[in-house]
Amino acid sequence: MSEIRGFEACRARLAELLAQADAVRAKKDGDQADKLADALSSFVSESRPDDPGDMAELAAIAKLDLLAEKTQEEMAAIAIGQAVNRVTDHSTELEAIGETLDQQAFGNAKVARRVRLAPVRDLIDRMTETVAAAKVAARSLDAGNPDEAAIQRDILALAERVQALVGAAGEAVGQRAG
């Protein structure tokens, strides 16, 4: 720690620090504000009168120290504000990453569900084709023949029950049954 002796030396050094404070205020530079806050704190610790018995010089240096302390508090506030902004920016960035991940996970879950349900959908498609084939087969029977008419009714009744099952299965997996 090196002392700054005398009012004029203290005033000159504080003038330098205050000029730096103006630049920091203009730039809102948190890192420089933090360094300057330390320098202002050191100034208060190092400022000394030439003559410790000179009450006027002591009072004048005390006023310089008070100005340095106020400026030091302002610089500390700028540094803290910038640090909070960086944390907020990082929090916002983290939130965005989380949202992206959530969207990706949701998309992956939808794809996995579709893949997992692919065999069920294939079964629904085959059952729909079977119902269509059964209806064609039933229509090809002679309704005038009592035996064929009975078979036709049974085939159409079975086709209706299978069609209802296909419809229910299709709704469960989000696919329209044919």
Q: Work out the strand percent.
A: under 5%
**Mind telling me the C-alpha Rg?**
43 Å
- In N-to-C order, the SSE pattern is EHHEHH
Low-pLDDT windows of residues = none
| Distance between the amino and carboxyl termini | 89 Å
Task: Report the helical percentage.
Answer: over 70%
Strand order of the largest sheet: 1-2
Count of separate structural domains:
2
- Please provide the count of β strands: 2
Number of helical stretches of at least 4 residues: 4
**Biggest sheet statistics:** 2 strands, parallel
Report mean pLDDT, rounded to a whole number: 84
Shape: rod-shaped
Kindly name the structural category. mainly alpha
Organism: Sphingomonas natans
Protein name: Chemotaxis protein CheZ
Reconstruct the topology from this structure.
Elements: E1 4-5, H1 7-27, H2 30-46, E2 47-48, H3 55-140, H4 146-173
Helix pairs in contact: 1-2, 1-3, 2-3, 3-4
What does this structure look like?
This is Chemotaxis protein CheZ. By secondary structure, this protein is mainly α. The chain contains four helices and two strands. The longest helix is centred in the middle third of the chain and has 86 residues. The mean pLDDT is 84.
Task: Please give a quick description of this structure.
This protein is mainly α and 178 residues long. 85% of the residues lie in helices and 2% in strands.
